[in-house]
């Protein structure tokens, strides 16, 4: 019999066996080989000693209940070891199943986070009790890494809550619930407030149910809500959110599709067959490139970025007491809310008391919504609102140790507002600008302490967008960078760090995506196909509609400013084929974008987007003009990836992780790629394949697709983009 090394068997005198998950070799329990051996050993012993056992409790000696699959292992699984991965998964499933069907009550005492494999262990128990520990989360987030829960997670959630709820609440969006919300949504049966209470409840369940079974092992059981016969059933279900329908329909996201298929097919067969189906669909995902891209980005890169790979080592952490937000418009209002939510006092300043109050009203609106959905309490709302002081009086900024400026995008105005307050705030206050395009080095010239000046580029809407791009100006000091980094983490956002350059990293790179879409319209391609190509590439926003949102006059202004700067520096300015389209749209047709009431799309009186402007067909489209659809998709993806390589060459970017995370979390680069540089790593044929394709696109569509020297060099050396 194999030994259990990671699960401790503790049996009390009444016959209750507590299986304590406690891997001695790691700080968290993971589904590694030692665990696989242990769970099998435990199942063997439970069967052998069945008569002396009254019930079984799963719990853990670690802070988290169980951390799930070992991603370092998973990223290495390829077609060559697919069978081993399949067999390993099946062996855990069989062992958990043997304990589940022993005929004894099995309880999961979930003492901390149970995500992925952790919740799957809990699902194999008849009764689940979660400890309401701070930060604890429960759910099956595998989909966010391009995978599916293959430890019985699909099979059991479908049988527990029915297909629709299992798919929508647990499997397809990978929602991570707090213990209380897990209870409300049927993921657990009870919540306990202390570990003692949790174990007491576990014992009480065993006492009350000497013979316990899963509902699906009871004769006559039917899956709640019935079962459809078609895996594409989401398309016919009004309850399915549009984004999921889109993922299931077109974008290259195999995980949602495999989850759907495993759930629907598995719902029509017996439990054991369903588990095999689940494993088969998992193996397909884990051996494919997309899960590797997503694990690289959303696990390894995200961890690197958040843990401070780009934060100057050794810089001391300093507390933030009070933040001054200058400008209470769309961005300022959102920044004030995000700071207050993190427990920081905010003084929100605008030109008039009314404008400042409107900025605060934005927080009131968000909180009213949160309250109506049960996501906050009246007390918490009041506490948060009390932290925001709206004002028009600069004197109220006294005592602020951080300033975040978000007034109009105008260098002279930004200089003016900093001059007005630099002697009122604390003498060593950190000075940040939320500019989206203006060079930080130039903005810093407006203040006396340039070393304390830095760019802090938030994304709209601030309360929802997880990323902040920190921009080091030419004279920004390390301490300012560390303070900015710590502030971003404090407000629970993800910081990437870049060096100053026009448009930094994010605004510059997204510009290439938009230009490419607009250029295609100029080439006579049907604009509806351009939009469809963006959607099928996996972009969250269609390209022409995004241009309308940003307004067509903005790139024109930036283009003119950049052209002037390049020419002043003695360089040559290359026009982009998109420029002519934008100029005609604005000058000839008077269609500057959504805020002007008309752009590539028509807009209703209420600002709602209507259909693509029929004039596009008349003035731009050449009937019968077509290019391969694959070229349309890849022109957008390549334009962003290639410029990101140039950002690395120019030292605008200093890490690969910043590029990957910034592109997906900030500017909507499709998540399945794992980000702009991981997209290149994972492209068919690797870097040489990417270089060859870039050259082909350059031949067909212009020199802007020529691979930059750094890319060619890496391809020739057989390297990839990794930190
Ligand atoms: P907005 O037009 O909504 O707000 C600007 C606010 O600044 C207005 O409320 C205005 O009254 C106020 N203001 C003007 N002069 C002022 C002064 N002297 N003192 C105090 N307040 C003053 O603009 P929005 O969209 O919030 O943008 C603000 C900044 O954030 C700009 O630099 C913009 O480029 C940048 N940004 C905008 C993003 C967006 O998606 N809108 C994204 C990221 C950055």
From TrEMBL:
Biological pathway: Lipid metabolism; fatty acid beta-oxidation; Lipid metabolism; butanoate metabolism
Domain 3-hydroxyacyl-CoA dehydrogenase C-terminal: 503-603
Keywords: Fatty acid metabolism, Lipid degradation, Lipid metabolism, Lyase, Multifunctional enzyme, NAD, Oxidoreductase
Domain 3-hydroxyacyl-CoA dehydrogenase NAD binding: 322-500
GO annotation terms (biological process): fatty acid beta-oxidation
Catalytic reaction annotation: a (3S)-3-hydroxyacyl-CoA + NAD(+) = a 3-oxoacyl-CoA + NADH + H(+)
Record carries keyword Flavoprotein: no
Keyword NAD appears in the UniProt entry: yes
Family, as annotated: Belongs to the 3-hydroxyacyl-CoA dehydrogenase family. In the central section; belongs to the 3-hydroxyacyl-CoA dehydrogenase family.
Name the UniProt record assigns to this protein: 3-hydroxyacyl-CoA dehydrogenase
Species name: Streptomyces nitrosporeus
């Amino acid at each position: 019999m194999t030994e259990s090394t990671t699960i401790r068997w503790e049996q009390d005198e009444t016959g209750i066996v507590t299986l304590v998950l406690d891997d001695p070799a790691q700080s968290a329990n993971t589904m590694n080989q030692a665990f696989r051996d242990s769970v099998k050993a435990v199942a063997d012993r439970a069967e052998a000693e069945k008569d002396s056992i009254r019930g079984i409790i799963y719990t853990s000696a670690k802070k988290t209940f169980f951390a799930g699959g070992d991603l370092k292992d998973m990223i290495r699984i390829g077609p060559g070891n697919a069978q081993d991965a399949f067999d390993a998964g099946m062996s855990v499933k069989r062992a958990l199943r043997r304990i589940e069907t022993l005929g004894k009550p099995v309880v999961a005492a979930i003492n901390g986070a149970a995500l992925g494999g952790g919740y799957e262990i809990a699902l194999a128990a008849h009764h689940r009790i979660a400890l309401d520990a701070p930060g604890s989360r429960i759910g099956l987030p595998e989909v966010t890494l391009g995978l599916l829960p293959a430890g019985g997670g699909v099979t059991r959630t479908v049988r527990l809550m029915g297909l629709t709820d299992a798919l929508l609440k647990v499997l397809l969006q990978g929602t991570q619930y707090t213990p209380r919300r897990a209870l409300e949504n049927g993921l657990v049966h009870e919540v306990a407030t202390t570990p003692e209470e949790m174990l007491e409840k576990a014992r009480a369940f065993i006492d009350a149910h000497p013979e316990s079974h899963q509902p699906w092992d009871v004769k006559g059981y039917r899956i709640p809500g019935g079962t459809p016969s078609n895996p594409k059933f989401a398309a016919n279900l009004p309850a399915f959110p549009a984004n999921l329908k889109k993922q299931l329909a077109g974008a290259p996201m195999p995980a949602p599709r495999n989850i759907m298929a495993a759930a629907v097919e598995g719902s029509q067969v017996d439990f054991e067959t369903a588990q095999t189906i689940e494993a088969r669909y998992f193996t397909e995902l884990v051996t494919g490139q997309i899960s590797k891209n997503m694990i690289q980005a959303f696990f390894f890169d995200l961890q690197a970025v958040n843990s401070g790979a780009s934060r100057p080592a050794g810089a001391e952490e300093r507390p933030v007491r009070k933040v001054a937000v200058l400008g209470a418009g769309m961005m300022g209002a959102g920044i004030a809310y995000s700071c207050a939510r993190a427990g920081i006092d905010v003084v929100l300043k605008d030109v008039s008391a009314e404008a400042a109050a409107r900025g605060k009203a934005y927080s009131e609106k968000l909180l009213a919504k949160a309250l109506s959905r049960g996501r906050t309490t009246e007390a918490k709302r009041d506490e948060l609102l009390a932290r925001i002081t709206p004002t028009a009086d600069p004197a109220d900024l006294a005592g602020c140790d951080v300033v975040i400026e978000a007034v109009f995008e105008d260098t002279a105005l930004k200089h003016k507002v900093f001059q007005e307050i630099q002697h009122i705030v604390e003498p060593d206050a950190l000075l940040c600008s939320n500019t989206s395009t203006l060079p930080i080095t130039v903005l810093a010239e407006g203040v006396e302490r340039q070393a304390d000046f830095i760019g802090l580029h938030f994304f709209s809407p601030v309360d929802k967008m997880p990323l902040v791009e920190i921009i080091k100006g030419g004279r920004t000091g390390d301490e300012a960078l560390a303070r900015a980094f710590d502030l971003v983490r404090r407000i629970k956002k993800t910081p990437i760090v870049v060096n100053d350059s026009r448009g930094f990293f994010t605004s510059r790179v997204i510009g290439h995506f938009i230009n490419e879409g607009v250029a295609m319209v100029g080439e006579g391609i049907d604009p509806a196909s351009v939009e469809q190509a963006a959607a099928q590439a996996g972009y969250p926003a269609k390209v022409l509609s995004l241009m309308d949102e940003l307004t067509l006059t903005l790139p024109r202004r930036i283009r003119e400013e950049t052209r002037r700067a390049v020419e002043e520096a003695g360089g040559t300015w290359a026009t982009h084929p998109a420029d002519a389209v934008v100029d005609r749209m604005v000058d000839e047709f008077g269609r500057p974008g959504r805020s002007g009431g008309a752009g590539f799309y028509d807009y209703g009186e209420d600002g709602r987007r209507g259909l693509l402007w029929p004039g596009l067909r008349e003035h731009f489209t050449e009937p019968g003009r077509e290019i391969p659809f694959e070229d349309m998709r890849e022109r957008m993806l390549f334009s962003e990836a290639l410029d990101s390589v140039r950002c690395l060459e120019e030292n605008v970017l200093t890490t690969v992780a910043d590029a990957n995370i910034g592109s997906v979390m900030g500017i909507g680069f499709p998540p399945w790629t794992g980000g702009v540089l991981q997209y290149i790593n994972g492209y068919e044929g690797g870097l040489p394949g990417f270089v060859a394709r870039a050259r082909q696109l350059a031949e067909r569509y212009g020199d802007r697709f020529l691979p930059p020297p750094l890319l060619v060099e890496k391809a020739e050396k057989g390297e990839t983009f990794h930190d």
